[in-house]
Design goal:
Low-confidence stretches: none
Distance between the termini: 47 Å
Strand content: under 5%
Shape: globular
Helix content: 55-70%
Strand order of the largest sheet: 4-3-5
Structural class: mainly alpha
Radius of gyration: 24 Å
Number of helices: 22
Order of helices and strands: HHHHHHHEEHHHHHHHHHHEHHHEHEH
Number of domains: 2
Mean pLDDT: 93
Largest sheet: 3 strands, parallel
């Protein structure tokens, strides 16, 4: 790498620290972190990821959460994710730079792909949520696997040959990535997408096909190992929501309506059903199609069709794991590869049409500022402020009202939109703009962890019964009665006492 590359990496590191600085001094518990910190330290034999086919995640997460005793300690797991990503950024940068090294117009493409990486919503989720801290390993292993295979492709007189060593190394990295988080392995496709859209590369079709063959082969190897792994664990079965579900028409509709639409928002977080997004998204698709035909010209219209078809196929494959299961849920944590692929295609098209260096410099600066400050807002204002307030309010409530005679908790959950409405922010799935305590699997673990941190007595927390309801009306209809041995935790009422 040249000195300029180190400067650019320094800018990326400083940008990430600027965005996530509050992570160093903020204490909070978010959603699955509550069952993890309580369960791994209190329930012998607990596992949360093996049934989902994420055996390596189970090993890593259970080890880290067993080292954490309090909500404050979970912060250090998140910091591992942040610094892990900072260590991986040079890997991403070098991989991309090596692929585009011979194209002068792509001089800053590695920088802006990495910039988008660290400012994207999937990246924010992987840092702010300790449950997703393994993403930096899984995503980086996948893009390296793809780069190794791309480097290992050789052209003979009649055949395309992929180095067996490259396939073996990619398989080891890929299977490890898949056992950490299945969706992460789609990052394998990023080097092939960059290689394909590069107009100066020859035999791109053969390279892409070779890469896809290896991609499907590694997925097949994982699937066999995934099925076999359940024979190694007693009383553990595959999670039904991850079972194969082949319904092409339903999945195509879902993909076009939700994941692909979300990927065109880049770092801007609008309301889930924003009218702006519904108009902007089809306009972007049309603009990309028209730009492609203009780029190749009337004489090469068939090549333009092939180009769009290949890119569309890669984009679909970048979300393939989520399209093979029954659940249709376009969470940000599943969108990393898809988001980056869409960004690469759009950014490269802009580079092709804008030749004026001064205009490019202004555009570069504008994109940089927009991405960084959007990410800063998304992390600090849409996520962090909400969950820090919620955690502090519930912690204080238990400290003030819990006593050793209480044996039952009555927990009233807030609605999924409660926080977004209270703090006047846009909500994004179950990851940003939501209360941690609104989900049905959180109240029991969260209450017991707060009892433990209040009393220092884990056994007392274990023996406490926790009942929860979706709202105050459901609680009243239940006919439950309060007495001195029951603590009512009405989260909406507790949070309404706080001024945002």
């Amino acid at each position: 790498m040249q000195r300029k590359d180190f400067y650019l990496l320094g800018i990326l590191w400083l940008s990430a620290l600027f965005i996530f600085l509050p992570l160093f001094y903020s204490d909070y518990i978010f959603m699955d972190e509550a069952p993890q910190i309580w369960g791994y330290n209190s329930i012998p034999g607990l596992n949360m990821f093996i049934g989902d086919g994420r055996w390596l995640s189970e090993i890593l997460q259970s080890w880290l959460f067993k080292l954490a005793d309090t909500i404050h300690d979970v912060k250090y797991i998140r910091l591992i994710s942040l610094f892990g990503w900072l260590l991986c950024l040079p890997v991403w940068y070098v991989v991309i730079k090596d692929i585009v090294a011979k194209v002068a117009a792509y001089e800053y493409l590695p920088f802006f792909i990495c910039l988008y990486l660290i400012t994207s919503l999937p990246f924010i989720v992987s840092v702010q949520w300790a449950t997703c801290m393994q993403f930096f390993i899984a995503d980086t292993a996948s893009i390296v696997a793809g780069a190794i295979v791309l480097k290992g492709i050789r052209f003979g007189k009649k055949w395309v040959v992929v180095s067996p060593l490259a396939v073996v190394l990619a398989m080891l990295l890929g299977v490890a990535s898949l056992f950490l988080y299945q969706g992460a392995f789609a990052c394998f496709l990023i080097p092939f997408l960059i290689h394909f859209i590069n107009p100066f590369n020859d035999k791109k079709d053969f390279v892409l096909i070779s890469g896809l063959v290896v991609y499907f082969f590694i997925n097949a190897v994982y699937f066999v190992l995934y099925k076999f792994s359940f024979s190694l664990f007693n009383n553990i079965v595959a999670n039904p929501r991850n079972s194969l579900h082949i319904d092409p028409w339903d999945k195509i509709k879902f993909f076009l309506a939700r994941p692909l639409e979300r990927s065109f928002r880049f770092t801007l977080m609008t309301h889930e059903d924003s009218l702006i997004s519904k108009i902007y998204y089809p306009l972007m698709l049309i603009a990309m199609g028209v730009a492609t035909f203009v780029r190749f010209g009337r004489a090469k219209w068939l090549y333009a069709v092939k180009h769009l078809t290949a890119i569309g196929f890669i984009v679909v494959l970048s979300y393939l794991p989520a399209l093979l299961i029954k659940e249709n849920y376009a969470s940000n944590r599943t969108l990393m590869a898809l988001n980056i692929c869409v960004f690469i295609v759009c950014f490269e098209m802009v580079l092709y049409f804008i030749k004026n260096r001064r205009i490019l410099e202004v555009a570069y600066f504008g994109v940089f500022m927009f991405f960084v400050f959007c990410a800063r807002h998304n992390f600090r204002e849409v996520f962090l402020r909400l969950v820090v307030d919620e955690t502090a309010a519930l912690t204080n409530y238990f400290r003030q009202h819990y006593n050793k005679d209480i044996h039952t908790i009555h927990f009233i959950r807030p609605s999924e939109d409660f926080m977004a409405e209270k703090y006047k922010v846009n909500r994004s799935m179950d990851e940003l703009g939501v209360a941690s305590s609104c989900w049905v699997w959180v109240p029991e673990s969260l209450s017991k962890q707060l009892i433990y941190e209040t009393t220092g007595n884990r056994q007392q927390a274990l023996q406490t019964v926790v009942k929860h309801w979706a709202n105050k009306e459901a609680y009243i209809r239940s006919g439950e009665k309060l007495d001195s041995n029951i603590l009512l935790v009405d989260v909406p009422a507790i949070m309404n006492a706080i001024t945002p």
